[in-house]
Design brief:
Shape of chain A: elongated
CATH class of the largest domain in chain A: Mainly Alpha
Distance between the termini of chain A: 12 Å
Number of domains of chain A: 3
Strand order of the largest sheet of chain A: 1-2
CATH topology of the largest domain in chain A: Fumarase C, Chain A, domain 2
Oligomer: homotetramer
Helix content of chain A: 55-70%
Order of helices and strands of chain A: HHHHHHHEEHEHEHHEHHEHHHHHHH
CATH architecture of the largest domain in chain A: Up-down Bundle
Largest interface: C-D, 126 and 127 residues
Structural class of chain A: mainly alpha
Chain lengths: ~475, ~475, ~475, ~475
């Protein structure tokens, strides 16, 4: 993937102030574009970032034109050299733009013509900005999704390492934020690992839909030149061609695929963040996040806040918003390309930056969390977490589950009245509620035994969880998608 | 798939007014549920629709419990018989509910216990409503997505038939709603067919994610009973098991997968609808929709409105809204099941009803549209649609594309001044603008030739489009997913 | 407000199966509407609920027509009598519909014509369904917003009563879910009361925008009949006229105003719900919600879940979704009425039902919550909540706040190392950290003193809070809007 | 309002690379913040823009502290001088930041302490970043909403001028994008002016809710210092105080008010844009947008695209997205400040930039649109736009409206069969359909007469529209809100 941030930033600095040059499309126009319109419609402030992808696409296009004899070999070589020089300048942060450059495509073409003269004007043969921008965006997102997938894999690995290291701790599993049944920490963390596996699949599906070549669709109807689309697709590593030119220039499904997959991913992150925030509270006190991942208060000297988790949770809304924004902009657009489509880029750029940053931060933070096994265990001793076990016990004595459930319910009510936990109730007390209770009940009112008994596939029994960790290890390794 | 609408409606009618029965979970509680709370929390008014799926799941669960010896054979048989009778009553519209029944699971269990006594209380052994509702919803959505996929296939077939029958018409292709280049109607319609092919893939991906068995996860941590999850999965036709119990009871990704895929599908529909609405206007006048698919005005006697297309476009917002609603409700939920999750159902039910109805209506309407080839062709004669061809022509004379573009741009400006179309300009006029124009230019200023020349893969040349129609026919036939 | 639920439900039952009657707009049409189209486009299944508003509007319209001599007095009387009979039937649940009735307007007109013959056909003079439905929806929402405002007032009163009764309890105030500074429970609850006051203002603003008469705009351009719009506005209690007919028939701002205000209201509810859920957890254990407002688990006998709060939190997404849905449907609609607009109703109906139900449930639940003042107070004794006071103390000794903050920060770090709370540190220990600490520091390390010192306007000092409660009482009483 | 763009940009350029300085809150922390965490949590890259507001707030705070004797007069003067110098540097683009500066508040404080020493550390007495950032954002939005309101007023004025100049043109009014009835162009444009008047009211309501002082709430519970909040409120021009400190530091309703109002405004813009795009098409051809407001195609030399309108329409999604993003981030946040709230800023900044830019562009573009009155009029001659008049005519002959509607409906059907417009049908033909037609019918089949007859309040009759234009002129002048 192409490094870009540095040059982008540098470039934004020195905006050229040259008088407006003639537009490439200006032949039919009798007046200059209004400067505010120019600023309003210019995409160069954000699509400048696409430059290396634009050039990669142009190189492949030029090579093909030369192969097909649409350009002479000399023209082809000239263009190739020129484009590479422009890319180098961009990489060095020495390429600058003004709003009058409109967009990255025009910027590159203008620089090229300045460099190599007329031959530069031939590069745009047999293509349009409509198919060109679709190509650039697909090349960019291919890289982005691939990078995100790798970063997510790192998060999975770190989370797995945590589960392997600290996962033996026992804590209450919650439903409705009420203590429900004891679970292994590893089991809890594996739930998130499962989510991330589904996210990986979603990313790979999006990737596959991205990876189709739109170039050659030209403005909307194809081109009159004898081009070789398959050759370009091969050159650029695409799986195949976008099959219909009108669809190809107005299709943004692949952007929505990224945003949908990203929204679900961020939703998963927001849930993990919520758990971490709860666990960091004095009330839960299950974890301590490293100082390096927290910040303090400007007024309250004692505060140490789980800011990273909070921001990740908050940024979920941001990504949802971008999804909603692009869905809205696409709604009701007639065929084919409409300028509204330009609005797709900032949304998907910011969404991916946000998602990738959140992914990396969570990956870095996981190993810096200290899990307080003692506090977790303590929390399992209050709240009647073994009530279900007791009901199950009664079914082994022949009660149907509904009756067993009611009996234990009443028992819990009585225990609450008496301010006691189930383990603390004498057998005689139990037998008053129901005669089926026997001395063997103590074997069921035991944390370790309770865990061990949940030995169904997918359950929290230590043996099961051990196997699940191994299986997850393999699953993560296999995360090795078409890219 | 199980027909359900009729019985649902019937049942909603006669709400029983019996005094509140004891809750299955009431053992621990000392007070009755407040009746407004009961109404507020009850899901039975909407999940009643899930009854056949609930029973299918319970049948498989009971069979497994019997196989594993957790139930006796007799109990198993009794339960099976009882459940089937309940299902029959539901199918006949004779099963009724009150809010006190809470949800479809409790309704079925209560009826079963009434029918077969204690054995009915054993059905809930080794499961919880948390995994049960996840199962029901997956079974339901499996059917829904499969049905939608078939209905979409019908729409594809009808649209393809239209393209094959009427697709030879030539109309302007538009960008920015400005006439751009001439295209074949078939080419335009194929763009939508491409979109629908991607939708089919998305549906199949969602389907695959739906098709994992959550049952056996119990409340959140697995169960202490020696269950056989794989057996149940096989019995119910699932591809595999949800691997982690905590994830399984709180995972709603598969709902979001349906809503994401559905939102993109509706977006495609909204674009098709927009085209149909534009084409129905007096200004475009490219199509006439059959009277049977239009409605009139209560005040303006002459009106005939493309209501179906408008409603489909409007309903896009509805489906987006449901996606946003479920994304929002999932945001920041801690592990595991939280009652908020109950809100997933009405959203996905209404979304799928909306999408399926829209799909069916569009499928029915397509063959009832008359395409006015004359009007379409007429529209291609104004608006300088062959300007790109003229620029391409000049490149064959050695001009670079940029120069050629500028020359033709000026030519168009001059033509507008003179109120003439390009075809009507004498050669002398052209040569004044640029000497490269020769008498062979007339071969380029020709509609049919222009179409024929756009012969690149994906282009609108008649030969290409013919092949694309064949390829699409095969693609649609292959739409024959895991289901 | 008009009771409607009962009759609605009854009516939905017996769908007439009569053959399709001629449409009111059918003159120009040569074919019957396709039955699926009829079902797809019919709004009667949901706008049937608007019937009393439709009739109220028609009565006012008919009276005006008679006053203006457009109807004879006899015709006016006949129509009035007929409409009232239809309303009575509806109230009794004896009015039924079929999809062929299209919408509530056509249903009423058809019944009227059946009842009183030709004169019934004159009611629609000088109006269109376009302005009629805008009127009905405004009348309906006027009632709904008024009712919601009253229900919200009840919630405010109940919350205030709680604050007055239990508000003396001291609990940790939180930022970042970390204990921050001690606050009075009343102060915490007053924060929500402030939010609800803003909600009331928002509702009243929406109400004012709703309360403009659209009738008389006819289809889109006004009418040729000599109508008296002002008279109708007065008759129906509107503040004024929608000033432009084209705007009036396509304006749905007032729906969006309701949905925006409602979304923000639900967001507030979701925050209150979150606090209640946290406080119900074993970890916080600050409150006990009455059994009547909780439900249990089908498998875990000990569970008691704060379902109402969870569902309210979850339903937030639902209302957001409706807002997004209507915003999307309005986006890019050209002038004037488009059939898409029909989609506004189900969204706003469901949103208001949801919001009102949530409001009522929270209002009922507040008095049924037991606040555990002991547990709350206990929570203030750990977590260094008085650290800010200590920094403030040091500034009274001449340190600048930044230095004071750093000193106390280090003190806290040392206290954590030593496993002690600030109050437990001997003065010598404090003086080691900084010599400015004196024996008077103990007066600052005191919970009551800390509260009392936060005596700035808006602060949590008991005296301030007492005044704030009084002020809030008056504010709530004044909630007595234009309606 | 404070000019800021220039200095912002300049500053972003030269990022200092100094080693991390100690955090103001670092006393309790034993480790440095991780640099990626610093970058992730830093808000300085976007809240740097708030600097002049931060300083305005700090100046008022310092003045108050000095008045109250919490600072000495000298300290007060020193701080004031220092802050003003920092502001000057910012205005000159000479103030720079690094991510280690965290946020604009810390940046200012650090620079101040560097400048004036210890006294700088006293500025933060009696406040927290929690109330400070709420203040800054309110000051910023107060300016923004005021500026937007003025820009919207300019758009209203320009649109009104257009309506006054060109509004006499007659064009078809549309429903369902079908020609419905003739209207004056001024009448059509007045519909948008009505929308914008509602937008102005919404902005002023938002403004009023913004204009409450949160400062003095400190971290969450008020402060122990004897501050004077009312004095600060007066100094900064606030209408009053945020009444509850816990609410004040976590309230973002005012942000949502801006985003809701802005979303509805953009929805209106998207509808205007849609009309302009349709009217620019060859098919409608009702307007010509000045070259200066259009752009061309890189491949199709004849293209002239209404880009501004398209982008405005597309940007609607962007603003909706921000609304949804902030609603989502607020959902379910417990009391009080949570770091998630930091995410509000970029959303509301970008939304307001987008809305204001769109407003200005539309305002500039309106006077540069040429309305083609001839083309508009031509469009009214086909499509049976006078059919309603004909039905109204028949009611003057004693037919009830329903019968009249049916008669004219049939007439239209026959006219279509005969390929004729209504005006072209001989009286004998009319009388065949219904004997009530008389020779006076020709007076009704006349465009001007039809317009003139729609003389009800709000209708399109020229006299009415003239009055409406005057009324609108006054309404716009009165747009002169609390600010």
């Amino acid at each position: 993937m192409i490094a870009m941030k540095k040059s982008e930033k540098k470039s934004a600095k020195r905006l050229s102030t040259k008088p407006q040059e003639a537009k490439a499309w200006g032949g039919r126009f009798s007046q200059k574009t209004d400067p505010e319109v120019e600023a309003f419609t210019a995409s160069i402030p954000f699509d400048f970032r696409l430059l290396p992808y634009d050039i990669a696409g142009s190189l492949a296009h030029a090579r093909m034109l030369a192969r097909q004899g649409i350009l002479t070999k000399t023209e082809g070589r000239l263009i190739e050299k020129g484009l590479k020089e422009i890319r180098t300048k961009w990489e060095q942060g020495k390429l600058h733009y003004t709003p009058a450059d409109e967009d990255v495509h025009m910027l590159v073409e203008k620089r090229l013509r300045k460099k190599i003269g007329t031959a530069g004007g031939k590069l745009h043969t047999a293509r349009s900005r409509n198919d060109q921008v679709a190509l650039d965006l697909r090349l960019f997102l291919r890289d982005q999704v691939r990078a995100l997938s790798r970063e997510l894999k790192t998060l999975q690995e770190n989370l797995l390492a945590t589960a392997q290291k600290d996962g033996g701790a026992v804590l209450p599993g919650y439903t409705h934020l009420q203590r429900a049944q004891p679970v292994l920490l590893a089991h809890h963390l594996l739930a998130y690992l499962e989510m991330f596996c589904r996210d990986q699949v979603r990313l790979s599906e999006a990737w596959r839909r991205i990876n189709r070549l739109p170039l050659g669709s030209a403005a909307l109807a194809g081109t009159t030149f004898p081009i070789d689309r398959r050759g370009v697709a091969e050159d650029l590593g695409f799986d195949g061609l976008a099959a219909n030119s009108m669809d190809a220039v107005s299709d943004r499904d692949f952007v929505l695929d990224c945003l949908s997959a990203g929204s679900i991913l961020m939703m998963h992150f927001s849930r993990l963040a919520e758990d971490l925030i709860l666990w960091s509270s004095s009330e839960f006190d299950f974890i301590a996040i490293d100082d390096a991942f927290c910040t303090g208060s400007s007024i309250m000297p004692q505060k140490k806040n789980p800011d990273v988790a909070e921001l990740v949770r908050g940024k979920t809304g941001r990504v949802y918003g971008h999804l909603m924004g692009v869905l809205t902009l696409m709604k009701g657009l007639p065929m084919t390309y409409n300028r509204d489509l330009q609005e797709d880029k900032e949304a998907v750029f910011d969404a991916l930056d946000t998602i990738r940053q959140s992914t990396r931060l969570l990956a870095r933070m996981m190993p810096r969390i200290r899990f307080k096994a003692d506090r977790m265990k303590e929390a399992t001793t209050a709240g009647y977490l073994l009530a279900t076990d007791l009901a199950d016990y009664l079914t082994t004595k022949g009660l149907d589950f509904r009756t067993a459930h009611r009996v234990v319910g009443e028992l819990v009510a009585r225990a609450i009245e008496n301010g006691k936990e189930l383990e603390a109730l004498p057998l005689s007390f139990l037998r008053e509620i129901h005669p089926s209770f026997g001395p063997d009940v103590s074997r069921w009112l035991n944390l370790e035994a309770s865990l061990a008994r949940r030995n169904s596939p997918g359950g929290t029994a230590p043996g099961r969880v051990r196997k699940a960790l191994h299986a997850m290890e393999k699953k993560i390794c296999r995360t090795d998608y078409p890219f």
